[in-house]
Request: fold
Amino acid sequence: MLEAAPGSVVYLLGDATPLYFRSPVLYNTTWDKWPLGEAIGAAPNEPGAWTRSLRERGVTLVLVNLAELDRLRKSGWADPRITPETLKAWLGSNGVRPVREWPELGCALFELVETAR
Reply:
């Protein structure tokens, strides 16, 4: 089980299985608003702003299910603002640090770190 530091939130991007976590989680189903999609819409082409938006919601860890995101995107059920290009830009940006990867599952864990604006 993944457990974040007290007071922090784990964002499940591409997953909607909060029961596997002891820590508070932020997630969405295909029919909900996507927190990352909203952040992208508010500040297009500014990955640092997307990170700040999620951190303002208490998010310190992001579990990204790339396999599920790809499936949702291909079926038309993903937020259209979350593309392979936007994910690459965001996950490679200054405020996002890789923690662990599970390539056999198509998942990776990232930490959102504070950066200077």
Summary: The CA atoms of residues 45 and 86 lie 8 Å apart.
